[in-house]
From TrEMBL:
Its EC number is 2.6.1.42. The keyword Acyltransferase does not apply. SUPFAM superfamilies: D-aminoacid aminotransferase-like PLP-dependent enzymes. One of its GO terms (cellular component) is chloroplast. Belongs to the class-IV pyridoxal-phosphate-dependent aminotransferase family. One of its GO terms (biological process) is branched-chain amino acid biosynthetic process. Keywords: Amino-acid biosynthesis, Aminotransferase, Branched-chain amino acid biosynthesis, Pyridoxal phosphate, Transferase. It catalyses: L-valine + 2-oxoglutarate = 3-methyl-2-oxobutanoate + L-glutamate; L-isoleucine + 2-oxoglutarate = (S)-3-methyl-2-oxopentanoate + L-glutamate; L-leucine + 2-oxoglutarate = 4-methyl-2-oxopentanoate + L-glutamate. GO terms for molecular function: branched-chain-amino-acid transaminase activity. InterPro entries: Aminotrans_IV, Aminotrans_IV_CS, Aminotransferase-like, B_amino_transII, BCAT-like_C, BCAT-like_N, BCAT_family. This is Branched-chain-amino-acid aminotransferase. It is an enzyme of class 2 (transferase). It comes from Rhynchospora pubera. It comes from the Eukaryota.
Amino acid sequence: MIAGAERICMPAPTVEQFLDAVKQTVLANKRWIPPAGKGSLYIRPLLVGSGPVLSLVPASEYIFLIYVAPVGNYFKEGLAPINLIVEEGYHRATPGGTGGIKTIGNYASVLKAQKIAKEKGYSDVLYLDSVHKKYLEEVSSCNVFVVKGNVISTPATKGTILPGITRKSIIDVATSKGYQVEERLVSVEELLEADEVFCTGTAVVVSPVGSITYLGKRMEYGNNGVGVVSQELYSSLTSLQMGLVPDNMGWTMQLQ
């Protein structure tokens, strides 16, 4: 939030203010936390300009708020393979823009392509870079990972890709389990040779990809099942999130 606010000329709460707001909101709504294994309490921070200004200038006042909602799986398939299509006409972000921060405009730009894809029976859209049109960027609201042997590759964050927290968590968990994780340019051709592909995000955690369609060619992964690496990383991270295993990463917080 601090990085995004700076990019679009907004003041940001301090880390202490942010954490205190999360704690207060969760505790005030603890009755809405779903039973174990039935979902989660989704936490959404929001920073919005609210001052009485119509001009194209930073707002004079801002509201920082956090709301929560009980949710199930982001994709209706749950931890089951999703089917993606590579978008050839629309782009999610461009160099020098705001693709690397969590601003609402990044989501408005994906709605059209996503709507078309879902009408064709796909779960979501995989975007390519807007310059060379051959390097993987993101799915509409998720980071993407490509598995080949013991190597897990994901597009490097260089301003057009959101440096998601779940992305970072999966990189750290995979590294701790002995996988070689590479953050680099990943060409669309690499999908042809991949053993597995999966997405990561706050809501999806890890979502295995069953197929990707590119230029009319459908590439399938894991015999249309959940890949071994995807399952391992999903189980490891969710077990840590739910307190089922010791938190050696220092990521979780106990609320009384």
